[in-house]
Design goal:
Elements: H1 7-25, E1 40-49, E2 54-66, E3 69-75, H2 82-98, E4 102-112, E5 115-122, H3 129-136, H4 140-148, E6 169-172
Length: 177
């Protein structure tokens, strides 16, 4: 798509999209998202026991992607200020608590500078969970089974949260094309 430089071109583009949405989905309402040209993809690994109790296992950077496939994952995410790291994990836990989340999962954000925006919540283990396991020493697969069997975070020794990460871990994937 060509860059839009004036209001009439933007109005024309918006109308084309509105018409396409109306004909395809029966609803022509649209919204515009902010462009984040230098955003990083940061995920917070969480757990909840269904009671509202939650904990996190830190975050990872999954910004290096090809065709929407993560290629490199790094835990913990490098070059985040302590304040930004705390705000990301606090908001991920706030979301999990509000949902009374029961499982291991991931809350994902786009981060640009000191700003961040929620992308999605994945209510499952993702392939890249192993980099989190490497720096936390926690076996997330076994924790997931224990939570599914009815264990609480307190039962699992996670009521006070998890210890800070030890070192760094990097996972690199090879994609066949």
């Amino acid at each position: 798509m060509r860059p839009v430089h004036d209001d009439s071109a933007l109005d024309d583009a918006f109308e084309i999209c509105r018409t396409e949405a109306q004909s395809s989905f029966g609803d022509g309402r649209l919204y515009v998202e902010r462009l984040l040209p230098h955003a990083r993809h940061i995920e917070v690994q969480i757990a909840g026991d269904g009671s509202g109790a939650t904990c996190h296992f830190g975050e990872r950077d999954c910004s290096i992607q090809r065709r929407r496939q993560k290629i490199v994952e790094i835990a913990p995410a490098p070059n985040l200020s302590d304040d930004l790291r705390r705000r990301l994990t606090d908001d991920a836990l706030k979301l999990a608590r509000a949902a009374k989340y029961k499982n291991i999962g991931t809350i994902e954000f786009l981060v640009e500078g000191d700003d961040y925006f929620f992308i999605e919540a994945n209510a499952r283990l993702q392939v890249e969970h192993t980099v989190t396991e490497a720096v936390t020493g926690e076996d997330l697969v076994n924790l997931q089974f224990a939570l599914a069997a009815g264990a609480t975070l307190s039962d699992l020794g996670l009521a006070e949260g998890t210890p800070p990460p030890r070192g760094h871990a990097i996972q690199v994937r090879v994609n066949m094309e």
